[in-house]
Backbone:
């Protein structure tokens, strides 16, 4: 399988996770005082940042400009106008995620919205698997795990952040 196809079929989730971990590691290497609370805060911040990028470029651009290819990668028929709605929702979440870099008071709203979006998408993916046998890369691959696990991780990291910053 070529890189482009692998990336399109869920590899983007693995790349995103690697970027989160590498960015956090670099940031920690550049500061004098390191502790697990700072590591949790940075993991949260970079996970929201990667989500922002994925929401704008992976979600909006792909669902809007490459809707048919995206639909196929999820195992859905091409030509569905719902792709445009998904594109703009991803754009909104991406913009909210971008604002988390500048405003910490946007962290909780982002976590709430991205959790509802992730768990909602995850349940749709599971329904597609169990009712239609849809094991397409962007339905049953790494995206399925990320839809459930990233919100849990963000919630846990946010609880740690809030506990240490009150």
Residues:
């Amino acid at each position: 399988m070529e890189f482009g196809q692998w990336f399109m079929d869920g590899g983007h989730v693995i790349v995103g996770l690697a970027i989160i971990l590498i960015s956090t590691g670099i940031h920690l290497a550049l500061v004098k005082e390191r502790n697990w609370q700072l590591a949790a805060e940075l993991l949260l911040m970079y996970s929201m940042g990667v989500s922002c990028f994925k929401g704008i470029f992976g979600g909006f651009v792909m669902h809007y400009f490459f809707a048919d290819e995206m639909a196929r990668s999820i195992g859905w028929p091409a030509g569905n106008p719902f792709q445009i709605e998904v594109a703009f929702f991803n754009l909104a979440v991406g913009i909210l995620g971008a604002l988390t870099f500048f405003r910490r008071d946007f962290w909780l709203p982002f976590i709430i919205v991205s959790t509802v979006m992730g768990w909602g998408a995850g349940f749709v993916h599971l329904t597609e698997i169990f009712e239609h046998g849809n094991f397409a890369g962007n339905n049953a691959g790494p995206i399925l795990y990320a839809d459930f696990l990233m919100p849990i991780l963000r919630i846990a990291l946010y609880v740690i952040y809030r506990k240490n910053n009150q």
